[in-house]
Amino acid sequence: MKNLKLLFGKGNSIGQYGMIIALIAIVIFFSITTNGLILEPTNVINLFLQYSYILILALGMVMVIIAGHIDLSVGSVAAFVGIIVAQSMSVWHWPAWAAIILGLAVGALVGAWQGFWVAFVRVPAFIVTLAGQLIFRGANQIIGQSTSVPTPNDYNAIGAGFLPDFGPNTNYSNGTLLIGLATIIALIVIEVRGRNRRKKMQAEVPPLWVSIVRTGVLVAVTLVATYLFGAGPVGTSIPIVAIILGVLTIIYGFITKNTIFGRQVYAVGGNASAAVLSGVSARKVNFFVMANMSVLAAIAGMVFVGYSNASGPADGTGWELDAIAAVFVGGAAVAGGIGTISGSIIGGLVMALLSNGLQLMGIESNKVQIIRGLVLLIAVAFDVYSKSQGRPSLIGGMMRQFQRKDTEQNTVAAQQPQSIQDQPEKVNTQ
């Protein structure tokens, strides 16, 4: 048991990896019940095409929730941007690149509008985004006149296109194989550099076998993913939207773990008053997390329009609920201050695989919704129960270990949220 704890990280029990274990269990269960259909390359590729926009929304929603807010407008904002982008190409005859820039600009303006009300007028984000949900849904209907607007093929590649293949015929996508190889090399380099950094700082270095096994597991997962994407039908490989999602995940993972602003988001969500006393501008943090959410909603809307080949009046319906569910299932705390990018992606994959697997089993959509709702309720209830018993949050603690453990000196603003996060039970038990 001691060796297993070393493998998973000092101070973390195996039980703290429940969400990852649950993800693996879901894959195994549906692999058996669907006779392996869930892991067919075609199904895996379609899964990313169909759920990628939810994962993109989850990247922004986790920062909003960490800061202690909620955003109910993301589906309507995505639909609003989608119809403007579609109109700009189909009616105004703009080129695709110009339409994309327009969509990002509109998303930024919407985010600035909502961020202003939250940060400076101090209207609760729940109310601001509820109003935004109504406003931008109505604007979508007015601009599009409640009809679908088609988009050109050169634009649709961002939502439905694939990484182009090249080189000799190997029965696999050569581009996918190269990306898989590059990912494996990156995983090895990151592990080696991490060990060297700890040695230079005279910090505790785990045994070599721990690094080998841990990296080996990640390499094995990468190999499986490379096979699933690379072995698809001719002309398909890694969806372009999966590349977009991967780049955004790396960027936002870096922001939340390695930047002062990322630490300030945790500070404001953990204890806003203490963060302000430590010199953190809560207004700036609140403004930018809300503005950022709308920009990501714009990206998700444009991706979905490309996937659907048109912008329709029902686009974005219920997306905010899916994004919020992914974040909470992935370990974010309801009260704010806790959550990770990686946890939100895992939570989104759990919900996506659950829906996909149940559909492959022939379960009707209404029952699928009930099951997904129960999963969300149980995940959050278990998190709250763990805190009420005076124990660290199981889900929150599990996902917190994904955050980089800095041994360098942090700013006062960076130190404040950690102290708050480490003592949630004291707040709850008083």
Observed structural traits:
globular, 430 residues, ABC transporter involved in vitamin B12 uptake, BtuC, single chain, mainly alpha, disordered C terminus, two-stranded antiparallel sheet
Please tally the β strands and state the result.
2
**Amino-to-carboxy terminus distance:** 35 Å
- Find the CATH topology: ABC transporter involved in vitamin B12 uptake, BtuC
Number of domains: 1
Q: What is the 3D form? A: globular
List the topology elements.
Layout: H1 2-8, H2 18-33, H3 41-66, H4 74-90, H5 96-119, H6 125-144, E1 149-150, H7 153-160, H8 174-200, H9 208-230, H10 240-258, H11 260-270, H12 272-277, H13 282-308, E2 310-311, H14 319-329, H15 341-360, H16 365-388, H17 394-400, H18 412-421, H19 424-429
Antiparallel strand pairs: 1-2
Description:
Helix 11 packs across helix 13 and helix 14 (319-329) crosses helix 16 (365-388). The chain is globular. It has a single domain (16-161, 239-423), classed as Orthogonal Bundle (ABC transporter involved in vitamin B12 uptake, BtuC), CATH 1.10.3470. A two-stranded antiparallel ribbon has the order 1-2. The chain has helices spanning 2-8, 18-33, 41-66, 74-90, 96-119, 125-144, 153-160, 174-200, 208-230, 240-258, 260-270, 272-277, 282-308, 319-329, 341-360, 365-388, 394-400, 412-421, 424-429; strands at 149-150, 310-311. The chain is an all-alpha fold and 430 residues long. The chain is built from 19 helices and 2 strands. It is 72% helix and 1% strand. Residues 9-16 and 391-430 have low confidence and may be disordered.
